[in-house]
Amino acid sequence: MNVFGVDIGGSGIKGAPVDLERGALTEERHKVLTPQPATPDGVAGCVAEVVEHFGWTGPVGVTFPGVVTGSTIRTAANVDKSWIGVDAGTLIGARLGGLPVTVLNDADAAGIAEMTFGAGRGRKGTVIMLTLGTGIGSAVFVDGRLVPNTELGHLELKGHDAETRASTKAKEDEDLSWHHWATRRVRKYLAHVEMLFSPELFIIGGGVSRKADKFLPLIEGIRAEIVPAELQNNAGIVGAGMAAGSE
Ligand code: BGC
Questions:
Q1: Looking at residue 52, which CATH number applies to its domain?
Q2: CA pseudo-torsion sign 52, 53, 58, 61
Q3: Binding site membership of 236 for ligand 1 (Cβ less than 6 Å)
Q4: What is the pLDDT of residue 1?
Q5: How far apart are CA 17 and CA 52, in angstroms?
Q6: Are residues 20 and 79 in the same domain?
């Protein structure tokens, strides 16, 4: 079965048809820049542009970088605050001429894809996927089952919101070396999450997972296994498609 996945990010909105048997995109993805400010109407228009680029008329799954219950947006850390309270499924569905739309948190989507087709395949026990990007997203699984909207990126770390210390945006904004970022920021963050959840496995996603060799080997003293995501930047699109396919 083929469905369509769209990943809404702070800088880009990308999507493609997804083959649910293989967990892969069936065509090269299409990307448009996220409008600034990233308001509901502006973003919904971009999602429609991506979907219409493929002439798609079936079910659509959409990720959102905030808490999503049902298809209503509850938090918006890195997009316009006017999203809070908006029923994104209804808004985007209307822009798509009534196509069925499923909405879920971006890290949850990436995690679902990794657990089925990537680094978490067949893994039991507690597995935590963390996406390091503009913010930090989390997806917590117990024996393969997701606990949605865990928001571990907003844990407090030394009096700070953790994502402002350990995201890749923090690395860039503060011009931190790989070594400093990995050993002081990411390691401390992982140690804190490990203290709370004792997972078997951490899966590290986000664009930076492509450069895993530059920082994962520097992280010591964590009991859990730490591996990079395998689907890399397509995990969100695949996971969005999987969510739409399971409706
Ligand atoms: C948001 C999460 C999101 C993460 C990654 C955080 O700021 O609160 O919901 O998953 O960023 O986009």
A1: 3.30.420.40
A2: negative
A3: no
A4: 76
A5: 11
A6: yes
Q: Does one domain contain both 78 and 162?
A: no
Q: What distance in angstroms lies between residue 163's CA and the mean position of ligand 1's atoms?
A: 9
137 in contact with ligand 1, CB cutoff 6 A: yes
Domain total in the chain: 2
Which whole-number Å values give the CA distances from 77 to 49, 156, 197, in the listed order?
24, 15, 24
- Token digits of residue 124: 């039991």
Q: How many angstroms separate the CA atoms of 137 and 110, rounded?
A: 9
Per-residue pLDDT reduced to its tens digit, 80-124: 999 999 999 999 999 999 999 999 999 999 999 999 999 999 999
Whether the CB-CB separation of 177 and 202 falls below 8 Å is answered with: no
Which tens digit of pLDDT belongs to each residue from 217-242? Answer: 999 999 999 999 999 779 999 999 99
If one counts every other C-beta atom within 10 angstroms of the C-beta of residue 155, the result is 18
Q: For ligand 1, is residue 167 a contact (CB within 6 Å)?
A: no
Report pLDDT digits (tens) over 26-44.
999 999 999 999 999 999 9
Ligand 1 binding pocket includes 66 (Cβ within 6 Å): yes
**DSSP string over 173-206:** HTT--HHHIIIIIIHHHHHHHHHHH--SEEEEES
**Domain carrying residue 198:** 122-229
| Residue of 135, 148, 143 lying closest to 201 (CA atoms) | 143
Q: Is 95 helix (H, G, I), strand (E, B) or coil?
A: helix
Structural element, H or E, at residue 215: helix 212-215
